[in-house]
Amino acid sequence: MYKIDLTGQRFGRLIAESSGYDKRQRAIWHCRCDCGGSKEVLSSNLTRGNTRSCGCLHRDVCGANRVDLTGQRFGRLIVARDTGRRRRKWGTVWQCRCDCGGSRDVLGELLTRGHTRSCGCLVRDVNRARAVDLTGQRFGWLIAVADSGQRRNGHSRWECRCDCGQTTVVRTGKLTGGHTRSCGCLHTASWMVRFNTLEPEDIPPRLAALVREVGRAKRLCRDTGAKKAS
Length: 230
Fold this sequence. Notes:
A hairpin with a 2-residue loop joins strand 9 and strand 10. This protein is α+β, with helices and mostly antiparallel strands. The protein is 31% helix and 32% strand. The chain has helices at residues 43-47, 56-65, 108-112, 121-130, 172-176, 185-195, 205-229, and strands at residues 10-11, 14-21, 27-33, 38-42, 73-74, 77-87, 91-98, 103-107, 138-139, 142-152, 155-162, 167-171. The chain contains 7 helices and 12 strands.
């Protein structure tokens, strides 16, 4: 494989010292950096100017352009200190103290653009303020009893009592959107009626009344359809 001899040549802060091949049989060079570090670089990245240091050049540029945010307020957050961590595309990571007493490490870019304004408590407070009281409301076979206090992705969950006697916890959107109408017994009863796989004496007592109700509803729909067809 043809390879250009780059020994002793300088590329930015790097000086090529010795060559070799990587696992894909591409030419690589072991380079010494002016900062004292070393790095193995693809020959093409050196000649094209894609790599000019061991990484210290980017750190120095970011440090020179860095704006000190210490003490500044962004929403509920006050910047406490620079964590010393850097993200290649986003810059400095800052440790912030929240008004609620919590703390969070946030990228400076997210602070200055207003994307992050709290440790997460702001979203929780907004969702709590927007929460709808469903206590006592009926959704199919379910009656909302109380807010369970559980949250997932900002969505509240309600403890519900089913007509069959069981209790279940359901997300608010599932209730109000009509996606959940029972603890699961409605689906079971519909399955029993549709496939007629169990004898009446084998049906659990708590589902017997529900099975009869679903059966009557299905017969009513079938009879109504037959009358319209005739």
